[in-house]
Amino acid sequence: MDATPAPYGTTTRTPTPASASAGPVPTTMPAPAPTPPSHEAHPSSSSSSAAAAAAAVAAAVASSATGAQSRPCDICRQRKTRCVREEGRDKCVMCSFHGQPCTYLRGPLPRKRRKATDPPEVRPQTNGSGSAAAAGPPPAPMPLDPQEEITHPSPELLEALSPSLAGSENIAHFSPQPSLLDGTLGLHLKTNSEYVGNTSYREPSLLDLHRPSDPSVRSVRRLDDSTVFLIHRDRETSSEPQRIADLDAIEKLVHPLGSTLVNLYFRIVHPSFPVLHKKVFLEKYARSYHEFSPPLLAAVYLIALDWSLYDRTLATSSWQPDQAALEALALRTMSDDMKRPKISTLQAGLLIQQRFRNNTWTFTAQLIALAQGLGLHVDCSDWAIPEWEKGLRRRLAWALFMQDKWGALVHGRPSHIRLDEDWDVRPCRVEDFPETAADEDYDPEGSAEVVVGRELFLRQIELSLILSDVLATFYTAKATRRGGTLDQIGTVGVAELAKPIVMMLREWYAKLPEALQLQETRLKKLSANGSLHLSYISIDLALHRSLVRNISSNAPPELRAAIRTGARARLAAASNIISNLQMEHIQSFWGFAASAQLAGIGSFAGLLWATSDDDAEAMYYADRVEEYLWSLRVRAQAAPFAREALRMLEADVGGLGAVRAAATTGLHGEMKM
Question: Where is the composition biased (Low complexity) (predicted)?
Fold first, then answer.
């Protein structure tokens, strides 16, 4: 790529540093036998209390001697509780109470201690079908590491199945063994957490004194000296049957290819967009798809369908899931889920927004409000929650930050997140990412590399911080209004403001590791590096767009020439990036902003044409516009985001398609800005 031209102006200023084709069918583990999975993976929110369950156990013990003498089921063995089955029932009392499968497939648990902060491991269990709506053979089991054989469900999964509130005494009674989800916040299926802000009418010091009449409906959770959450039980009792029905409808649309789509998602999308906890998701999915919120499951399926050619089963199947119906379900259930927001709601929203058709500024605003209610905008480093959840929260927070900043640029709107005032999230570090190179043992064709994806995500965060500076400096309403900041300081002042940001961009590019260079691709591996370089050049173009717009009539000629020469070099660099994209780049995961970023290159060329000094320069940029439109056209079939960019330029950006015609007929002088 062409070297970045020297910064503008002569005064030296210290820059502020930026913060922070088909592969083999996966090997699978056999599904456990002979007991089929139960369809009662989740009780409704109106389930009996833990005390009622204990009474039922006592009654069953008194009435059934055989039950007391029988071998404990897998769940009771794991929980270390007495296993009692009433006469004539196919489930023990505890499994019936929690709505869990009652199986006798495993022997005594291995005596192995594990840290509460360790990531969970994938368990070889089948993904139980939910109802008659998903009739047919059960979905294929999830691909697992052939080196790893797990003989019992993990504590965090058992905890996720429990209807008890986080931190309640019931958990200690039924699950004395340390669990990964013990102490987590916002990750339970049937509760939602609410951050208590500093100006709320709820005074945190008084909340500590409050004892609700029904703790099962609402409880108070203090995480540190100044941070308090309210934990609410999902109120609508009718929501649970609807949730199960929605999940069954979603699964029916993809059955029996659900596990294949999940595998595709984690192979291709997750490495560079890590908004999920992979091992927790896979373990829950292996247990039952009923463990998820409907919009999250639908979003994972929906995005994965874009890479159906990278799985032999999907690529050769004569039947394909109904993508439109799946998208409609994802959007409807997302709206329902926002009434009782959880971390899974935010995860689903971020995934849905990566499809450019669903990316609206209003949707982004809703997600930001939702995230603030979950406390994702504040630092969680000292909170009394597990370390792995802190990492997940940081990744989600910064993914939302990127969504906000790029959304503001794409939609031409003010950013919702004010970095210096209402954003107190520590930058992500390597420790915040649970997956490592060891997770790439299963290495099919078309996968993305985990470690490279992690580095790419971190670099995208750095770029979004630079973009935040560009937006705050050059694109606020106060700066751009007539007589505003940019008008007051003139062309020289605007160039001085741009200088430190140009230096930051140059420094960012110079520090890119070899693995993230555009030309760095591996055989039979997809590479998301193209999206990173497109983001970089898009920020550079946004900066120069403001510079070109703010060249005044009394600007020094040498400065005017320097700005336009720099802008011309940026346009050439952008075109060079597009022409150097390989199929490994084009077929990888691109975020929601890619189509608008591509359209922005063409729009920038149109701006340079419209502000040309003479007809020769105008003709030069008219040729560049034509060349760029052609480069998009030849890539449109392979890249949906390029097709959308072409549509945006030819349909939504008025006059760009007629640039050459205007230049050749001498209309440039009349259209010149």
Answer: 1-26, 43-59
Give the residue among 585, 604, 588 at the shortest CA–CA distance from 645: 604
Q: For strands 191-195 and 218-222, give the pairing.
A: unpaired
From residue 327, alpha-carbon distances to 399, 587, 644 in Å are: 22, 21, 18
Pairing of strands 228-233, 191-195: antiparallel
Indicate the domain borders of the chain: 1-30+448-591, 35-411, 593-673
Give me the mean pLDDT over the 94-99 stretch.
66
* Average pLDDT value for residue range 150-168: 40
User: Which residue has better confidence, 672 or 465?
Assistant: 465
Cis peptide before 32 (omega within 30 of 0): no
Model confidence pLDDT, tens digit, residues 46-60:
334 444 444 444 444
Q: Quick one: which H or E segment has residue 191?
A: strand 191-195
Are the CB atoms for 505 and 539 separated by under 8 Å? yes
Q: Tell me how far apart the alpha carbons of residues 141 and 198 are, in angstroms, rounded to a whole number.
A: 47
In the sheet that 191-195 helps form, which strands lie side by side, from edge to edge? 191-195, 228-233, 218-222
pTM for this structure?
Answer: 0.71
Residue type, 533: H
Better-scored residue on pLDDT, 183 or 570: 570
Residue 515 DSSP one-character state: G
Residue 174 contacts residue 81 (beta carbons within 8 Å) = yes
| Entry field: residues in the chain | 673
DSSP character at residue 651: I
Phi, psi of 247 (to 5 degrees): -65, -40
Q: What is the pLDDT of residues 5-33, one digit of tens each?
A: 545 544 444 444 444 444 444 443 444 44
Helix, strand, coil shares of the chain, percent, nearest 5, are 55, 5, 45
Residue 444 structure tokens: 């099919």
Of 77, 76, 152, which is closest to residue 114 (Cα–Cα)?
Answer: 152
Q: Across residues 612-625, what is the average pLDDT?
A: 93
Report the distance separating Cα 162 and Cα 150, nearest Å. Answer: 21
Following DSSP, what letter does each residue of 381-430 receive, concatenated? TTSSS-HHHHHHHHHHHHHHHHHHHHHHHHHT---S--TTTS---PPP-G
Both tokens of residue 327?
Answer: 């998208």
- Report the alpha-carbon distance of residue 140 to residue 118 in Å, rounded: 28
Tell me phi and psi for residue 398, to 5 degrees. -75, -30
Number of helical H runs and strand E runs in the chain? 27, 3
Three-class DSSP category at 150: coil
Torsion of CA 97, 98, 104, 109, to 10 degrees: -120
* Alpha-carbon span 400 to 36, nearest angstrom: 40
CA distance 181 to 277: 13
What's the CA gap between 636 and 657, in Å, rounded?
A: 17
- What is the 3 state secondary structure string of 300-341? HHHHHHHHHHHEHHHHHCCCCCCHHHHHHHHHHHHHHHCCCC
